[in-house]
Amino acid sequence: MDISLLIQNLSKRFGAIEAAKGVTLEVGTGQIHALIGPNGAGKTTVFNCVTGFLRPDSGKVLLNRKEVTSWPPHKLVKAGIVRTFQITNIFSEQSVLENVQLAVRSKLGKNLDMFGNADKMSQVQREAEEILQIVDLLDRAHVLGEELGHGDRRVLEVAIGLALNPKILLLDEPTAGMSRSETERIAELVQRITDRTSILLVEHDMEMVLSISHRITVMTQGKVIAQGTPEQVSKNSRVQDAYLGEVELGT
Amino acid sequence: MAESLKGARPESAPATILRLTAARWIFVLCATLALAIPILTTNDFFITVLTEALIFGIWAMSLDLLVGYTGLVSFGHAAGFGLGAYAAGLFAQNISAEFILTLLAAQIIVILVAFATGFVVTRLSGIAFAILTLCICQVLFQIAVVWRSVTGGLDGLIGAPLPEIFGRALEPGREFYLLTVSTLIIVYLGLRRFVDSPFGRTLQAIRSNEDRASAIGINVRLHKWVVFIISWMVAGIAGTLFVFLKAGANPMSLYWLESGNVLAMTILGGMGTLYGPIIGAIVFVFLRDEMTTLFRAWQFTFGLVFVLVILLLPSGLAGIVSRIRSQFWTSRY
Amino acid sequence: MDWNFLFANSLNGIIYGSFLTLISLGLSLVFGLGRVVNFAHGVLYALGGYFFILFLPKIGWAALIVAPLIVVPIAIAMERLTIYPIRNRHEIYTLLVTFGLSFMITGAIEYLWGTETTLIRPPDLLDGTVSIFGNQFPIYRLFAAGLSLFVTGIVFGFIQFTSMGLRIRAITDDGEMAEALGINTRFILTVIFGAAAGFAAFAGGLGAPIFSVDPEMGLGIIIDSFLAVILGGLGYLPGTAAGAFIVALTKSIGGGYIAEWSIAVLFVVVAAVLVLRPRGVFNRGRIT
């Protein structure tokens, strides 16, 4: 199986705190890999290092075998590493459709085009509508970002990410603050999009993680303490000690 | 959670189509009216004041690109304007008063300075950006005052020749007014095209959520730099017209109060609309002319109005217009 | 190398730096507490100067205390009426509204008191010069700078060692958390806003014999204050003090040699610092 994203021995410290130490993990093409751990374990640090928001002190990040360590965010996006944010971060003044169109235009390299008419780009509109169709937001296409409910906003986040044609999509706690049904909606959506991209997700919802992930990495205090399939990980005693408690494999 | 900046907002598709057609008609109407002014009135003084107002309209539009569309508040926007005026004035005095050539010469100077200062200043945002733009303007002001041999010091440039179109000098008054209106129309159409382009939409995305913009692959820094240069270029066009209108240039055009004036025009008129600032400029110029003859506390009153507009009417006059319009459309459906 | 010239300029820079520290501290505190960028802080300094010279002939040097006492309520009214109502909007609105206020107040000053510059003699007790390394230096300047630094020291001490100061530091670190802990942030914000205005106004009066009083004094000081705060790192108080001295010394020394270009030199210095360290020289500020 091909490896989409390879993180090798990633380390990052803030002063005296080693937020991430020697983290290694790989995400296979079309796979869902979950990164879990208690708060402060270093998951977001890893995310930030991979997506160019932080420079790692050491270690490598490889996308489809090509080294992309320490690249700036916009370069990584063009290469295919795309992330969503923990705190919903959409363009609130723009409509749902425009939110996605912005991403599509960016992907198509049209950001610097000063002469075309943004509203008359049919290819852009078509692609955006296709994405909205996949995430099931097409009927809300003209609603403004700030008018959306919480659940829809998280879905829009995923849509924006998807529109950028990622090779790997990093989802930062996509179900944060969601009800059971909204969580299921996202879980189902994430599974649906694996034919387009690989997924690395940080999550706290154990049920969801165990049911949809192909592989799981568990971190605590900056280090990886377990890695494997959901079954392997949930049986790992160190993990159970660290924070899972008693968890059964999904039904 | 902070409320977002008010600015150009997209609406539902059917309303947009109807609105666009209406907008086009309004534009054609205004443009025709503006061009017809010399026929409609014999009041030369009025025409001169209107010319100044329209020049400021161009200047205010250029600031709108920064403030209204990109979310970058500049406290030093007199810089591009004043620089354009001086450059154009010097060129016209010493080389040629052919309008297009003067305009191009001034643009070259403006682009060079904006390129260099923009490189530094667009690395910053918010307050740091605002203060540094103020500094840049003050530096230019100092240069204008100190470099007597070139700029004429505190007296400024005195006496610019009449602008020429293909060798024929334009009369001040009506003919110059028509030149100004034509320039305004061309600039407006160009900027309208610009803000509706992907680049323009990207700017609005930056204003709306800068972090998100960079997360989707937008080179925020580059966009800010480019729009900074463009805003100076358009301000420089206004400055070029201004030096011909006033037959001279003055360092006070580069003083911080002028930067405050153009900011007020843009906000009063309604930022993020392009036409709002033009309205704001017209209102400002006519109000100022009325007020300064009436009483001395112009600056105070003006500051007060500025504050009130921010507090009560953040979308400016254009906001009132669009609110009326949306009432009208809602009642249709 | 004219050492005397350099020394005199440096000393003047330190004098100005002492004033600027006191003024900029207020600006930095208000920003740290409420994320408010108060562009009108400069005109509060100017108002302090003007009220001082208004009351000086009537009550003598007690005007130094009276002037701030008048400016503080004005500032608090300003905050209540124009800044508080828009606190939930995008930050640039506060910047714009305080910019408008500066305009307004400068206009009011010109209308009420005219556009000339007024020079004040120092009190007889402190008039005269003292010799430092062969240079004749006005005693008042040294006294005034010392007093500014003394007041600055009290402010630092207050923040560091009192329970109110602790609350201030808590709010600056994490405003929401502080509220959740029951700290009355609204009240403290108002108090600090008033105090900042008071210090600025005091500096306006105290500095009148040195820097003179004119309607545009607010603009010069606000630019310098903001540069000081930005250089030191937004919201980081020791940085603000350092920034103030950097600005003051750059202006005095740079300006000494190239008089009219002091602001250009300042711009280059600040731009260079910001480009290399956007969080200020100590890398402790919030991102600009």
Written as H for each helix and E for each strand, in order along the chain, the element string of chain B is HHHHHHEEEHHHHEHHHH
- Coarse structural class of chain A: alpha/beta
- Per DSSP E runs of 2 or more residues, the count of β-strands of chain B stands at 4
Oligomer: heterotrimer
Strand content of chain A: 15-25%
Radius of gyration of chain A: 18 Å
List the helices and strands of chain A in order: EEEHEEHEHHHEHEHEEHH
Percent of residues in beta strands of chain B: under 5%
Q: Helical stretch count of chain A?
A: 9
Name the biggest interface. Answer: B-C, 50 and 43 residues
Keywords:
heterotrimer; B: 333 residues; mainly alpha; two-stranded antiparallel sheet; two-stranded antiparallel ribbon; C: 288 residues; ABC transporter involved in vitamin B12 uptake, BtuC; 3% strand; globular
3D architecture notes:
The complex is a heterotrimer of chains A (251), B (333) and C (288). With 251 residues, chain A is an alpha/beta fold. Helices cover 35% and strands 25% of the residues of chain A. Chain A has 9 helices and 10 strands. Chain A is globular and about 55 Å long. In chain A, 47% of the residues are buried. The C terminus of chain A is likely disordered. Chain B has a domain of 225 residues. In chain B, 75% of the residues lie in helices and 2% in strands. Chain B contains 14 helices and 4 strands. Chain B has a two-stranded antiparallel ribbon with strand order 1-4. Chain B has a two-stranded antiparallel ribbon with strand order 2-3. In chain B, helix 2 runs parallel beside helix 7. The longest helix of chain B is centred in the first third of the chain and has 28 residues. The relative contact order of chain B is 0.17. The N terminus of chain B is likely disordered. With 288 residues, chain C is mainly alpha-helical. Chain C has a single domain, classed as ABC transporter involved in vitamin B12 uptake, BtuC (Orthogonal Bundle). In chain C, strands 1-2 form a two-stranded antiparallel ribbon. In chain C, helix 1 packs antiparallel against helix 11, helix 2 crosses helix 8 and helix 2 packs across helix 10. The termini of chain C are far apart. Chains in contact: A-B, B-C. At the B-C interface, helix 5, helix 11 and helix 13 of B face helix 4, helix 10 and helix 12 of C.
